[in-house]
Write a structure and sequence with these properties.
This protein has helices spanning about 20-35, 60-70, and strands at about 5-15, 35-45. It is an alpha+beta fold. Strands 1-2 form a two-stranded parallel sheet. The longest helix is centred in the N-terminal third of the chain and has 13 residues, at about 20-35.
């Protein structure tokens, strides 16, 4: 993806919990570079290792801050499930 491209929508469904801690900030920073003021960001995540999902990494305070930065000022959230 060329660095000068901007996108109207970024979708991340069950992706972020698989990004290694050492790469997480860089990953989010790359997404911020391709986002413009009106970009819609849709994401879902299920951080935390479980027996069913042993590869899911934990959500740290820093990761939560980075996700909030990606989502921008207007955050609309819907919690599904338990």
């Amino acid at each position: 993806m060329p660095p000068d491209e901007k996108y109207d929508m970024i979708m991340l469904f069950d992706v972020l919990e698989h990004i290694p801690d050492a790469e997480f900030e860089s990953f989010i920073r790359k997404l911020l570079k391709v986002k413009h003021d009106k970009t819609v960001v849709l994401l879902s995540h299920s951080f935390g290792e479980t027996a069913v999902h042993p590869m899911h990494l934990k959500a740290t305070k820093k990761k939560k801050q980075l996700m909030e930065e990606l989502l921008g000022e207007e955050i609309h959230a819907m919690r599904v499930g338990a």
